[in-house]
Amino acid sequence: MFRILLALATGLALGSLAHAEDKPKPKRIAISEPKDLKDNADFAVQGEYTLGTKDKKAGLQVVAKGEGKFAVKLFNGGLPGDGWDGKAALSSTAETKSGTTFVTVKAKDIVLTGSIADGKLKLEGDSARVEFSKVERKSATLGAAAPKGAVVLFGKEGDEKNWSGGKLVELSDGKFLNNGIKTKAEFGAFTAHVEFRLPWMPNSDGQGRANSGVYLQDRYELQVLDSFGLKGENNEAGGFYTLHAPKVNLCYPPMQWQTYDIDFTPAQFDGEKKIKNARTTVKHNGVVIQDDVELKNSTGGGQPEKATPGVFQLQNHGDPVVYRNIWVLEKK
Q: What global pTM score does this model have?
């Protein structure tokens, strides 16, 4: 079984079901309310699937692309951040027809076909039959409590007052923080914890799909974007624009809570002259994706680098990204 999956993961030919005729771009969908997705068939199919034991695993990511179509990626060894061997993933597609989601994976002389339903992705061919089970991963730091001495920027109703423009977003599962806002307090060196949830936007792509960002000192943007199933570039989730792509793309599917844990040392100045670049380590969903990297300049939209502390900004790109459980512990 795993020999076949390995062959698939290293194959050159990509599977596809059908090519729809060109037609107008579907309307924008941006859903942040969980109850509105309760009976959404595409939302139920999208997600992460795994197969195998602790020592021998494979992972699949199924990404909704709108109107019953899906991108499928197969990872040998397990999901990104959970066993994936780091080699190129095999890409394929799936499509829902007459209420059934069909998937076909091709590589060299191997063809597996099957379907996705009820949290199971089943594939079979001449010499193999495999079944993946849907999983919902949770960050190891999800819900992390603010340590002693930390500044809680948002933990409960009323904390929105800590932000210029801060407002509550009331949804069926809680009250959260909006975006397009900045903290009133400024910070130098710090460790910080941020939790965010991306809306469901299946008909959108690229920078138009759940776009926001966490600006450190209002100078360096740590990108927030629905990058589930993408390569992991410097303009995608966990990246610093033009500076650093994440070591691995740890973006979860939309509508799952995700975490950033940030350790930040600001740039150092001698008068007006910068003598050391800012540095940062970032964990996305508990996995290091930026390892003590240098931030040699502010990123696009960021304020100029200075010796003074700066605010946090939660960027607004018109998408209903929400935030919660944000705290900062300043370092001396």
A: 0.92
